[in-house]
Design goal:
The protein is α+β, with helices and mostly antiparallel strands. The protein is built from four helices and seven strands; from the N terminus they run H-E-E-E-E-H-E-H-E-E-H. Helices cover 26% and strands 26% of the residues. Strand 1 (46-51) and strand 2 form a beta hairpin. Helix 1 (5-20) packs parallel to helix 2 (81-92). The N and C termini lie far apart (40 Å).
């Protein structure tokens, strides 16, 4: 499946962000590995850009412009295309935060009963190039599991005022 022009620009933009932050993503944009249809892929609706390392990041670029940034294989942030590269940059530069959802004794007990002793969200706030525009915040739940990474659990905590 050949890439449309908007997706090609998005892939190159993600590459620029990753390389600028010392990470080499895959695949190389010039190779266009989606050119030939792979019968094993079926009808893949998205194009992946993988940024290996710590944290492990995969960006799924969808044709309709609503992308998903997968963090450490466990957290999925839904992001509109205009902010996908900004979210990737925030994750690579340490601007992501964790916000606790459970508060007080009852909240923590409920978290333990639900097998998630520290229910929290991954929070990423991005700013536009135009300072007149308000910052946008993207968040998704972090569910503790055996695969939950130390990177996610080690994030600084976001203040409640970020909501």
């Amino acid at each position: 499946m050949p890439l449309d022009e908007a997706t090609q620009r998005a892939v190159r933009g993600l590459w620029e962000v990753a390389v600028r932050n010392g990470r080499t993503p895959a695949p190389v944009p010039e190779a266009d590995p989606w050119e030939d249809d792979d019968p094993l892929d079926g009808d893949r609706a998205w194009v992946p850009v993988e940024v290996p390392g710590d944290p492990s990041l995969v960006v799924r670029l969808y044709r309709h412009g609503e992308d998903v940034v997968v963090v450490e294989d466990t957290v999925e942030l839904d992001v509109p295309r205009r902010d996908t590269a900004r979210v990737l940059e925030a994750l690579l530069t340490g601007a992501a935060r964790r916000r606790h959802r459970a508060r007080g004794l009852v909240g923590n007990l409920l978290g333990i009963v639900m097998h998630n002793p520290q229910p929290s969200d991954l929070v990423v706030t991005v700013h536009d190039d135009d300072p007149a525009l308000a910052p946008r915040t993207y968040e998704a739940p972090i569910i503790l599991a055996t695969m939950t990474s130390g990177w996610l659990l080690g994030l600084p905590t976001a203040p409640d005022t970020d909501r």
